[in-house]
Amino acid sequence: MEPSLNIQEMADITGLSAHTLRYYERIGLLRHVARNAQGYRIYSTQDVAWVEFLLRLRDTGMNIAGMQRFAELRSQGDVTASERRQMLEQHETQLQQQLASLQDHLHNIGDKIQYYRQLEQQTTRQS
To answer: What predicted TM-score, i.e. pTM, was given to this entire model?
Structure first.
């Protein structure tokens, strides 16, 4: 018999809160969670593996909608490998663009900091 976990045990193992696990279930990221006779969720080792997959997606910075689409494709099997790769390539491109934008912001902040340092020095000399 496969071990079963209650929601708190699942939360402890995955690092997700019980609230997040219920949310993932509600939005379809976590499907077919079994229930015991009292109606409480019981999680299997397969559920743990699926959540670990979701966490790897989340760790890429993928948004919930992307995670939902990717998870749907994965659940369809290897026939969707090409589409999943393309999704990851698009996500990578978006992240590279965001990174470039953040680097521009950092450069602009550096310029402003330098401006204010010079202004402070001028103000100090005039005092």
So the answer is: 0.79
